[in-house]
Amino acid sequence: MPISIALAGKGGTGKTTVAGLLIKYLVKTGKSPVLAVDADSNANLNEVLGLEVFDTLGNAREEMKKGIVPSGMTKDVFMDMKLQQAIMEHEGYDLIVMGQPEGPGCYCAANTLLTGFLDKLIGNYPYIVMDNEAGMEHISRLTTSNVDILLIV
């Protein structure tokens, strides 16, 4: 089982900066590969890590909802493919970005998708670092269930 580290706290306190520094430290000290998770709808962990986001889990879900599924492919296979494409691979770590919710203030589906996808991936990484949105709601949404270390910034 990987060691999972989640960051939580008030907005503007430096959660994303700490997450980025922690990811870089783990990689530098040979603890890779690290799974970096940006579970904030206002995603910017990629900027701290110096990466450009091309796809998010939210985008994958929206494509499936619009029915953009190639013929000969089931929705489940299509969704798995899109989720795999949303992983940004870099030296020593991979980044997954949750993305925007489907409606104002509605994060349930995005969080459920993220949680389910993480369950499939956790066996591939010794460390998971999750940068969460401001506040503590992600705990009640179970996005941060099974966390070994919760850093409150």
TrEMBL record:
One of its GO terms (cellular component) is cytosol. Keywords: ATP-binding, Nucleotide-binding. GO terms for biological process: negative regulation of cell division. The keyword Membrane does not apply. Pfam families: CbiA. GO terms for molecular function: ATP binding; ATP hydrolysis activity. Residues 6-91 form the CobQ/CobB/MinD/ParA nucleotide binding domain. It comes from the Bacteria. This is AAA family ATPase.
